[in-house]
Specification:
The chain is built from four helices and 25 strands. With 360 residues, it is of the alpha+beta class. Strand 14 (164-169) and strand 15 form a beta hairpin. The relative contact order is 0.12.
Length: 360
């Protein structure tokens, strides 16, 4: 028998109220969903901060999820930053005083040209059928692995923070691996050079991108939980892809299976794993309180490199950060296999609850 404050919690009235509250909480995500959102496609604006525009169209918070950069159009910032979705699991983020033109928005041929300023691309999922290229200073760079990439048009630099890229310059493919950068159209050596990662991680766009990635990971858990009910995948779930989360007012990425860590070290859950994540996790205290929105993302405390973009299928628990920066909890043991086991090309999802679907 469960009691609280000396009162018997088996009292029928309490049971009824508890049942009603549970039913409301289950239905709440759908009830508060924004049904006016279009399905996400490459070029969808997912966040706006400060001054940003598509051509002459000024963007605001109301543009999130509805504004789209079509081929031939440019997404531009003044004193501001913005986030644009590419293929499912790939985010492009622009820093202050930057411009990116959408060249091709096909799922199998996605190309963006950075004409000024700086852009960072986070690649959390990449299929063999994807062909993601970033043009800068007349040179095209193809992203061949999941990871984190920086394009500094003002200094004609391509940086690979984590991952692998192929710079196609003067009819040659130059491989740039993690921790290296390539000066474009340089007259000197063709060999990519190393750079100081710690110094780079203190830069403004990197820090902002990491924070945005954190929010997207929180939205992932919030949205993913709604698709797994009583051992079954619920309505609206059609596999890995973009899903709208009304609580965070933006699209998030949900993998098809398991848990994986993105290049910033944030954890992303599939519906089954988000549903299983506990409410309280800690070592001798409530270090992992999850709050009303559900579990926050896992961020591993040590070097995330061995765990990035890997599935977690351990019996260990999935935890989060604690009160006031408490101790991170375990996330289990990663496998070496890819985090995604729900085959096929990722799809896009739109409003009408957390997804409303269809492919485009």
């Amino acid at each position: 028998m469960w009691s609280y404050g000396g009162e018997d919690m088996n009292y029928p009235g309490v049971k009824f109220i508890t049942a009603v509250l549970a039913a409301f909480l289950i239905a709440a995500p759908v009830s508060f969903a924004d049904t006016n959102k279009n399905p996400a496609v490459p070029g969808t604006v997912n966040y706006v901060e400060g001054q940003a525009s598509i051509g002459a169209q000024e963007l605001s918070s109301k543009s999130i999820g509805s504004a789209q950069v079509d081929p031939g159009q440019s997404l531009t910032t003044a004193t501001g930053k913005t986030e644009m979705l590419l293929t499912p699991g790939v985010f492009l983020r622009l820093g202050d005083h930057s411009s990116a033109q959408m060249v091709s928005s096909s799922l199998t041929d996605t190309q963006v040209a950075i004409s000024s300023g700086e852009a960072m691309v986070e690649v959390d999922e990449l299929h063999p059928q994807n062909n993601i290229r970033i043009a800068e200073d007349g040179v095209t760079t193809r992203l061949v692995k999941t990871g984190l990439y920086d394009f500094d048009a003002d200094h004609s630099l391509v940086r690979v923070i984590d991952g692998k890229a192929e710079v196609q310059e003067n009819d040659r493919n130059i491989t740039v691996k993690g921790g290296h950068q390539r000066a474009l159209n340089s007259t000197g050596t063709r060999k990519p050079a190393g750079f100081d990662k710690k110094t780079f991680e203190a830069t403004d766009l990197y820090r902002w991108s990491s924070l945005r990635s954190d929010y997207v990971a929180e939205a992932n858990v919030d949205a993913a939980r709604t698709y797994y009910v009583n051992g079954f995948y619920g309505p609206g779930w059609i596999g890995a892809g973009w899903y709208w989360d009304p609580w965070f007012a933006g699209y998030t990425f949900i993998p098809g299976d398991g848990i994986f860590y993105n290049p910033f070290g944030w954890g992303f859950y599939s519906p089954f794993w988000a549903y299983r994540s506990p409410r309280f996790v800690g070592f001798g205290g409530y270090y992992g309180h999850y709050g009303y929105r559900g579990a926050p993302p896992v961020r591993i405390a040590h070097d995330p490199a061995p765990y990035r973009n890997r599935a977690v299928h351990s019996s260990g628990f999935a935890g989060g950060r604690g009160f006031g920066g408490g101790h991170p909890a375990f996330a289990g043991s990663p496998h070496t296999a890819s985090a995604f086991h729900g085959g096929g090309m990722s799809s896009f999802h739109g409003g009408g609850g957390f997804s409303g679907g269809g492919h485009r």
